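Quick one - inputs below.
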Amino acid sequence: EAGVTQFPSHSVIEKGQTVTLRCDPISGHDNLYWYRRVMGKEIKFLLHFVKESKQDESGMPNNRFLAERTGGTYSTLKVQPAELEDSGVYFCASSSGQGFSPLHFGNGTRLTVT
Amino acid sequence: GQNIDQPTEMTATEGAIVQINCTYQTSGFNGLFWYQQHAGEAPTFLSYNVLDGLEEKGRFSSFLSRSKGYSYLLLKELQMKDSASYLCAVRDGGVGYSTLTFGKGTMLLVSP
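Output:
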C-alpha cells in the first residue's frame, strides 16, 4: 500500500509569488488533513476534508490560503500571494475514519519564502 | 485553550530505558497519540491511548492518566535508530475525526 505522498518536497519562492502544494492520500482514505510546522513551533492543524467537503477549516491562517479536494482524491493547497511568515513544513495526512483511525502523514513540503 | 507540554530534548545510552513525559490541557479529549519523526521524514504512528493505563507494543509502551492530564512514552532497549523527535498529540474531535493538537516534540538522542 502506497503511503501519503506530497509534492514538491521543497519549494523556494519569493514573497508575493504563488505556490501550490499537492497531496495524494492513501487510497480509500476519505479523511484528508493539512498541517503546518513553522520553525520552532509545534505542528498545527490547518484544515480537514471528508471526501471533497471541508469538514473543518478553522486552522487556516487567512484568505491567502486555499485548499481544494476536487473529486475527493488528491488535494491541493495554494498560497497566494506568499508572505515570509508562510515559510515552514506543510504536512498532509489521511485516515480512513474507521475506529480510532490514526493519521498517516506524508513527508511534508518544505516551503521557504524569501 | 489547548496546551501540550513535553521536554525539548533528552539523551540516553544505547540499551537503556527512557521515559518521555507529556502533560496536556485541552478543551476536549478523545485519545492521545505518540508519533515518531526522523529528520526530514513523515511523523509515524507509535501508540494510542484513550483509556487510563498502559499500552504495550514491543519495545514501546505508552501510559495515560486522564484525571492528571498526563501521558508518557517508555522506550526500552534503546537502539541508535531510536534517535528521533517524539510527538505527543491529543485528539479533541469525535471518533473517526482525527484533528490533533500537537506538542512541540521531544528530541531524543541515543548515544553508543
